[in-house]
Amino acid sequence: MKLQKLSFNLLSLLFIAGVVLLSSCEGNENPTPQGESILPENFSVDIPDAISDENLVSGARYGNARTAADTLKGNDIYEHLGLFIHVGESAAEIVEDIIGSIRIYNINKPMVLSFEGDDDGRTKNLVVEADADFDGEVWDFVLTITDADSEGNDDGGKALQVFWNHTTNPIKGIAILKPYNIDRDGDADAGDATFRIDYSEAGEHGYEAHMIVSISELPTPDPLDDPWAMDGIKLFAGRNGDVVDVYGNSNHPNAFFFSGDAGFNWAFVASGNDDSDIGVAEVGLPPSNLDDPTRSVLLEYYSIKDVFTREISDVWPGLDQSIIDAYLFNTEAPGYFGTDGF
After folding, report:
1. Helices (DSSP H) in the chain: which residue ranges?
2. What percentage of the chain exceeds 90 in pLDDT?
3. Is residue 270 within 8 Å of residue 51, measured between CB atoms?
4. Who's near 111: CB < 8 A, 6+ residues apart?
5. Dihedral of the alpha carbons of 76, 81, 87, 90, in degrees to the nearest 10
6. Residue 81: which of 124, 37, 51, 41 has the closest Cα?
7. Domain parsing of the chain, residue ranges
8. Sheet of strand 232-240: strand arrangement
9. CA distance 44 to 237
10. What span, in angstroms and rounded, lies between the C-alpha atoms of 134 and 142?
11. Residues 46 and 239: beta-carbon distance below 8 Å
Protein backbone atom coordinates (compact mmCIF):
# COMPACT_ATOMS: atom_id res chain seq x y z
CA MET A 1 0.00 0.00 0.00
CA LYS A 2 1.90 3.03 -1.26
CA LEU A 3 0.56 6.41 -0.16
CA GLN A 4 3.86 8.23 0.09
CA LYS A 5 3.40 10.58 -2.87
CA LEU A 6 0.05 11.95 -1.77
CA SER A 7 1.13 12.17 1.85
CA PHE A 8 4.21 14.19 1.01
CA ASN A 9 2.17 16.46 -1.28
CA LEU A 10 -0.39 17.13 1.44
CA LEU A 11 2.25 17.89 4.05
CA SER A 12 3.96 20.16 1.53
CA LEU A 13 0.67 21.95 0.90
CA LEU A 14 0.29 22.61 4.61
CA PHE A 15 3.91 23.67 4.97
CA ILE A 16 3.82 26.08 2.02
CA ALA A 17 0.56 27.64 3.16
CA GLY A 18 1.94 28.22 6.63
CA VAL A 19 5.34 29.50 5.56
CA VAL A 20 3.87 31.95 3.03
CA LEU A 21 1.62 33.63 5.57
CA LEU A 22 4.20 33.45 8.34
CA SER A 23 6.95 35.01 6.24
CA SER A 24 4.59 37.56 4.71
CA CYS A 25 3.49 38.79 8.10
CA GLU A 26 6.97 38.74 9.59
CA GLY A 27 8.41 40.52 6.57
CA ASN A 28 6.35 43.65 7.19
CA GLU A 29 7.32 46.43 9.53
CA ASN A 30 6.82 45.34 13.12
CA PRO A 31 4.56 47.72 15.02
CA THR A 32 5.24 48.32 18.68
CA PRO A 33 2.94 46.15 20.80
CA GLN A 34 0.38 48.18 22.72
CA GLY A 35 -2.04 46.47 25.06
CA GLU A 36 -3.08 42.87 25.38
CA SER A 37 -3.62 40.84 22.21
CA ILE A 38 -7.11 39.47 21.68
CA LEU A 39 -5.86 36.52 19.61
CA PRO A 40 -6.36 33.00 21.04
CA GLU A 41 -3.33 31.50 22.77
CA ASN A 42 -3.99 27.86 21.78
CA PHE A 43 -5.60 26.26 18.76
CA SER A 44 -4.41 22.64 18.60
CA VAL A 45 -4.10 19.42 20.59
CA ASP A 46 -0.58 17.98 20.73
CA ILE A 47 -0.77 14.29 19.78
CA PRO A 48 1.86 11.82 21.11
CA ASP A 49 4.52 10.77 18.60
CA ALA A 50 3.67 7.11 19.18
CA ILE A 51 0.56 7.60 17.02
CA SER A 52 1.45 10.78 15.08
CA ASP A 53 4.69 10.88 13.13
CA GLU A 54 5.56 12.28 9.69
CA ASN A 55 8.50 9.86 9.43
CA LEU A 56 6.17 6.91 9.05
CA VAL A 57 6.27 7.38 5.30
CA SER A 58 9.76 5.94 5.22
CA GLY A 59 8.89 3.22 7.71
CA ALA A 60 11.40 4.74 10.11
CA ARG A 61 9.35 4.23 13.26
CA TYR A 62 7.28 1.12 12.66
CA GLY A 63 9.52 -1.90 12.76
CA ASN A 64 8.89 -5.43 11.59
CA ALA A 65 8.47 -7.12 14.96
CA ARG A 66 6.54 -10.41 15.20
CA THR A 67 7.08 -11.01 11.50
CA ALA A 68 7.95 -14.15 9.60
CA ALA A 69 8.93 -14.27 5.94
CA ASP A 70 5.41 -15.23 4.82
CA THR A 71 3.62 -12.81 7.17
CA LEU A 72 2.34 -9.33 6.32
CA LYS A 73 4.60 -6.96 8.24
CA GLY A 74 3.31 -4.67 10.95
CA ASN A 75 5.15 -1.90 9.14
CA ASP A 76 3.06 -2.43 6.00
CA ILE A 77 -0.18 -2.49 7.99
CA TYR A 78 0.22 0.56 10.21
CA GLU A 79 2.89 2.76 8.64
CA HIS A 80 0.40 5.29 7.27
CA LEU A 81 -1.83 5.55 10.34
CA GLY A 82 0.56 7.87 12.15
CA LEU A 83 1.09 9.92 9.01
CA PHE A 84 -2.63 10.55 8.51
CA ILE A 85 -2.97 11.58 12.15
CA HIS A 86 0.11 13.78 11.77
CA VAL A 87 -1.43 15.52 8.73
CA GLY A 88 -4.49 16.45 10.78
CA GLU A 89 -2.35 17.60 13.68
CA SER A 90 -0.14 19.67 11.33
CA ALA A 91 -3.16 21.49 9.89
CA ALA A 92 -4.09 22.71 13.36
CA GLU A 93 -0.48 23.61 14.22
CA ILE A 94 -0.14 25.66 11.02
CA VAL A 95 -3.20 27.71 12.01
CA GLU A 96 -1.78 28.14 15.51
CA ASP A 97 1.57 29.29 14.07
CA ILE A 98 -0.12 31.75 11.71
CA ILE A 99 -2.08 33.23 14.60
CA GLY A 100 1.18 33.56 16.51
CA SER A 101 2.89 35.36 13.64
CA ILE A 102 0.03 37.85 13.29
CA ARG A 103 0.61 38.99 16.87
CA ILE A 104 3.19 41.47 15.58
CA TYR A 105 0.29 43.61 14.38
CA ASN A 106 -0.90 44.18 17.96
CA ILE A 107 -4.39 42.94 17.24
CA ASN A 108 -6.24 44.13 20.33
CA LYS A 109 -9.40 45.46 18.67
CA PRO A 110 -11.23 45.39 15.30
CA MET A 111 -8.86 46.61 12.59
CA VAL A 112 -7.95 46.50 8.87
CA LEU A 113 -4.52 46.21 7.22
CA SER A 114 -2.87 44.84 4.07
CA PHE A 115 0.37 43.04 3.27
CA GLU A 116 2.02 41.42 0.26
CA GLY A 117 2.15 37.65 -0.13
CA ASP A 118 5.79 36.64 0.22
CA ASP A 119 5.73 34.03 -2.59
CA ASP A 120 2.95 34.99 -4.99
CA GLY A 121 3.47 38.76 -4.54
CA ARG A 122 -0.28 39.35 -4.36
CA THR A 123 -1.93 41.76 -1.95
CA LYS A 124 -3.59 40.15 1.06
CA ASN A 125 -6.11 41.99 3.21
CA LEU A 126 -6.47 41.33 6.93
CA VAL A 127 -9.67 42.35 8.70
CA VAL A 128 -10.65 41.82 12.35
CA GLU A 129 -14.32 42.30 13.22
CA ALA A 130 -16.30 41.97 16.43
CA ASP A 131 -19.55 40.06 17.07
CA ALA A 132 -19.32 37.65 14.15
CA ASP A 133 -22.16 35.21 13.46
CA PHE A 134 -21.00 31.82 12.16
CA ASP A 135 -22.12 28.21 12.39
CA GLY A 136 -25.02 29.02 14.69
CA GLU A 137 -22.95 30.97 17.22
CA VAL A 138 -22.00 34.59 17.80
CA TRP A 139 -18.24 34.92 18.28
CA ASP A 140 -16.43 37.78 19.99
CA PHE A 141 -14.15 38.22 16.98
CA VAL A 142 -13.40 36.98 13.48
CA LEU A 143 -10.08 37.47 11.71
CA THR A 144 -10.22 37.19 7.91
CA ILE A 145 -7.30 37.19 5.49
CA THR A 146 -8.20 37.40 1.80
CA ASP A 147 -6.45 37.50 -1.54
CA ALA A 148 -7.41 41.07 -2.48
CA ASP A 149 -7.91 40.49 -6.21
CA SER A 150 -10.11 37.44 -5.55
CA GLU A 151 -12.61 38.97 -3.16
CA GLY A 152 -15.22 38.99 -5.94
CA ASN A 153 -14.99 35.21 -6.38
CA ASP A 154 -17.56 32.79 -4.98
CA ASP A 155 -15.27 32.00 -2.03
CA GLY A 156 -14.63 35.69 -1.37
CA GLY A 157 -10.92 35.13 -1.87
CA LYS A 158 -10.71 33.93 1.74
CA ALA A 159 -7.32 32.49 2.67
CA LEU A 160 -7.89 32.21 6.42
CA GLN A 161 -10.76 32.86 8.79
CA VAL A 162 -10.57 32.44 12.54
CA PHE A 163 -13.63 32.82 14.76
CA TRP A 164 -13.03 32.87 18.51
CA ASN A 165 -14.24 34.06 21.89
CA HIS A 166 -11.96 36.33 23.88
CA THR A 167 -14.07 37.66 26.73
CA THR A 168 -15.08 34.24 28.04
CA ASN A 169 -13.07 31.29 29.27
CA PRO A 170 -12.30 28.62 28.25
CA ILE A 171 -10.85 29.10 24.76
CA LYS A 172 -13.06 28.08 21.85
CA GLY A 173 -12.81 28.80 18.14
CA ILE A 174 -13.07 27.74 14.50
CA ALA A 175 -10.43 28.26 11.81
CA ILE A 176 -10.85 27.76 8.05
CA LEU A 177 -7.83 27.72 5.75
CA LYS A 178 -7.75 27.71 1.92
CA PRO A 179 -4.17 27.29 0.64
CA TYR A 180 -5.00 28.39 -2.92
CA ASN A 181 -5.82 31.91 -1.73
CA ILE A 182 -2.67 32.01 0.36
CA ASP A 183 -0.23 31.16 -2.43
CA ARG A 184 -1.49 31.08 -6.03
CA ASP A 185 1.90 29.86 -7.27
CA GLY A 186 2.68 27.03 -4.90
CA ASP A 187 -0.90 25.77 -4.49
CA ALA A 188 -2.20 26.30 -8.03
CA ASP A 189 -3.54 22.73 -8.33
CA ALA A 190 -5.39 22.86 -5.00
CA GLY A 191 -8.06 25.40 -5.92
CA ASP A 192 -10.86 23.85 -3.86
CA ALA A 193 -8.87 22.27 -1.01
CA THR A 194 -10.12 23.50 2.36
CA PHE A 195 -8.99 22.88 5.93
CA ARG A 196 -11.20 23.47 8.97
CA ILE A 197 -10.18 23.21 12.63
CA ASP A 198 -12.71 23.35 15.47
CA TYR A 199 -10.88 23.82 18.79
CA SER A 200 -12.29 23.96 22.31
CA GLU A 201 -11.23 23.81 25.93
CA ALA A 202 -14.86 23.93 27.12
CA GLY A 203 -15.10 20.19 27.79
CA GLU A 204 -18.05 19.50 25.46
CA HIS A 205 -16.80 15.98 24.68
CA GLY A 206 -15.40 15.14 28.11
CA TYR A 207 -11.83 16.29 27.37
CA GLU A 208 -9.73 19.11 28.77
CA ALA A 209 -9.14 20.18 25.17
CA HIS A 210 -10.22 18.78 21.83
CA MET A 211 -10.00 19.58 18.15
CA ILE A 212 -11.83 18.40 15.06
CA VAL A 213 -9.82 18.68 11.84
CA SER A 214 -11.59 18.42 8.48
CA ILE A 215 -9.69 18.49 5.17
CA SER A 216 -11.74 18.30 1.97
CA GLU A 217 -11.56 18.68 -1.81
CA LEU A 218 -7.94 17.59 -2.05
CA PRO A 219 -6.84 17.20 -5.69
CA THR A 220 -6.47 13.55 -6.72
CA PRO A 221 -4.10 12.62 -9.54
CA ASP A 222 -4.85 10.17 -12.33
CA PRO A 223 -5.49 6.75 -10.72
CA LEU A 224 -2.88 5.26 -13.04
CA ASP A 225 -0.29 7.60 -11.52
CA ASP A 226 -1.35 7.34 -7.88
CA PRO A 227 -4.35 5.11 -7.08
CA TRP A 228 -3.83 5.54 -3.33
CA ALA A 229 -4.34 9.32 -3.18
CA MET A 230 -6.82 10.60 -0.62
CA ASP A 231 -9.31 13.38 -1.26
CA GLY A 232 -10.13 14.19 2.36
CA ILE A 233 -9.66 13.39 6.03
CA LYS A 234 -11.59 14.09 9.23
CA LEU A 235 -10.03 13.64 12.65
CA PHE A 236 -11.03 14.16 16.28
CA ALA A 237 -8.37 14.47 18.97
CA GLY A 238 -9.16 14.90 22.67
CA ARG A 239 -6.68 15.32 25.51
CA ASN A 240 -6.94 14.57 29.22
CA GLY A 241 -3.59 14.96 30.94
CA ASP A 242 -0.94 12.95 29.09
CA VAL A 243 -3.49 10.79 27.27
CA VAL A 244 -4.85 11.70 23.84
CA ASP A 245 -7.67 9.83 22.10
CA VAL A 246 -7.91 10.11 18.33
CA TYR A 247 -10.44 8.83 15.83
CA GLY A 248 -11.33 9.62 12.25
CA ASN A 249 -11.01 8.52 8.66
CA SER A 250 -9.37 9.38 5.37
CA ASN A 251 -10.98 8.64 2.00
CA HIS A 252 -9.14 7.06 -0.94
CA PRO A 253 -11.59 6.97 -3.88
CA ASN A 254 -9.37 5.08 -6.33
CA ALA A 255 -7.50 2.72 -4.02
CA PHE A 256 -7.95 -1.07 -4.07
CA PHE A 257 -6.50 -4.18 -2.47
CA PHE A 258 -6.59 -7.75 -3.79
CA SER A 259 -9.95 -7.91 -5.56
CA GLY A 260 -9.63 -4.69 -7.55
CA ASP A 261 -12.77 -3.05 -6.10
CA ALA A 262 -11.84 0.64 -5.83
CA GLY A 263 -12.68 3.18 -3.14
CA PHE A 264 -12.13 2.77 0.59
CA ASN A 265 -11.81 4.69 3.85
CA TRP A 266 -8.92 4.32 6.25
CA ALA A 267 -10.94 4.47 9.49
CA PHE A 268 -9.11 4.51 12.80
CA VAL A 269 -9.34 4.89 16.56
CA ALA A 270 -6.19 5.35 18.61
CA SER A 271 -4.92 6.44 21.99
CA GLY A 272 -1.46 7.63 22.96
CA ASN A 273 0.36 8.62 26.12
CA ASP A 274 2.83 11.49 25.87
CA ASP A 275 4.75 10.66 29.02
CA SER A 276 5.22 6.96 28.21
CA ASP A 277 5.41 7.34 24.41
CA ILE A 278 3.07 4.40 23.88
CA GLY A 279 0.00 4.01 21.72
CA VAL A 280 -2.70 1.59 20.68
CA ALA A 281 -4.85 1.65 17.54
CA GLU A 282 -7.52 -0.14 15.56
CA VAL A 283 -7.96 0.34 11.82
CA GLY A 284 -10.89 -0.46 9.54
CA LEU A 285 -11.12 -0.39 5.74
CA PRO A 286 -14.79 0.27 4.90
CA PRO A 287 -15.79 1.14 1.32
CA SER A 288 -16.01 4.84 0.47
CA ASN A 289 -19.77 4.67 -0.13
CA LEU A 290 -20.61 3.03 3.20
CA ASP A 291 -23.21 4.87 5.28
CA ASP A 292 -22.98 3.17 8.66
CA PRO A 293 -21.24 4.80 11.65
CA THR A 294 -21.39 1.81 14.02
CA ARG A 295 -18.20 0.38 15.47
CA SER A 296 -19.30 -3.20 14.77
CA VAL A 297 -19.35 -2.39 11.07
CA LEU A 298 -16.48 0.09 10.66
CA LEU A 299 -13.86 -1.60 12.85
CA GLU A 300 -15.08 -5.18 13.16
CA TYR A 301 -16.75 -6.28 9.93
CA TYR A 302 -14.34 -4.08 7.96
CA SER A 303 -11.29 -4.73 10.12
CA ILE A 304 -8.05 -5.13 8.20
CA LYS A 305 -7.96 -8.85 8.96
CA ASP A 306 -11.54 -9.53 7.86
CA VAL A 307 -11.35 -7.37 4.72
CA PHE A 308 -8.10 -8.98 3.61
CA THR A 309 -9.36 -12.46 4.46
CA ARG A 310 -12.50 -12.02 2.37
CA GLU A 311 -10.67 -10.52 -0.60
CA ILE A 312 -7.88 -13.10 -0.59
CA SER A 313 -10.43 -15.91 -0.38
CA ASP A 314 -12.42 -14.43 -3.26
CA VAL A 315 -9.38 -14.03 -5.51
CA TRP A 316 -7.75 -17.36 -4.54
CA PRO A 317 -10.70 -19.55 -3.46
CA GLY A 318 -8.60 -22.70 -3.13
CA LEU A 319 -5.94 -21.20 -0.88
CA ASP A 320 -5.45 -23.06 2.39
CA GLN A 321 -6.85 -21.10 5.35
CA SER A 322 -3.72 -21.76 7.40
CA ILE A 323 -1.66 -19.88 4.79
CA ILE A 324 -4.06 -16.93 4.93
CA ASP A 325 -4.01 -16.93 8.73
CA ALA A 326 -0.21 -16.97 8.80
CA TYR A 327 0.01 -14.14 6.27
CA LEU A 328 -2.46 -12.00 8.22
CA PHE A 329 -1.07 -12.79 11.68
CA ASN A 330 -0.14 -9.17 12.42
CA THR A 331 -3.50 -7.79 11.31
CA GLU A 332 -5.26 -8.92 14.49
CA ALA A 333 -6.51 -5.76 16.22
CA PRO A 334 -5.44 -3.78 18.09
CA GLY A 335 -1.92 -2.72 17.17
CA TYR A 336 0.42 -1.56 19.93
CA PHE A 337 3.19 1.01 19.51
CA GLY A 338 6.08 2.25 21.58
CA THR A 339 9.38 4.06 21.19
CA ASP A 340 10.54 1.54 18.58
CA GLY A 341 7.22 1.40 16.74
CA PHE A 342 4.94 -1.59 16.11
Report:
1. 4-26, 74-78, 81-102, 179-182, 295, 304-315, 321-327
2. 45
3. yes
4. 105, 126, 127, 128
5. -120
6. 51
7. 4-337
8. 111-116, 123-134, 137-147, 158-164, 172-177, 194-200, 209-216, 232-240, 243-252, 264-273, 278-284, 335-337
9. 9
10. 9
11. yes
The CA distance from 342 to 335, in Å, is 7
Tens-digit pLDDT profile for residues 162-203:
999 877 778 899 999 998 898 888 766 778 899 999 999 999
Distance CA(271)–CA(279), nearest Å, equals 5
Question: Phi and psi at residue 277, in whole multiples of 5°?
Answer: 55, 50
- Torsions phi, psi of 230, nearest 5? -105, 150
The per-residue pLDDT for 124 is: 92
- Rounded Cα distance between 45 and 244, Å, is 8
Contacts for 255 with CB less than 8 Å, ≥ 6 apart: 1, 227, 228, 229, 262, 263, 264
More confident call, 290 vs 274:
290
Q: What is the SS3 assignment for 216?
A: strand
Contact 51, 84 (CB under 8 A): no
The residue count of the chain comes to 342
CB 172 within 8 A of CB 178: no
Contact present, 38 and 166 (Cβ < 8 Å): yes
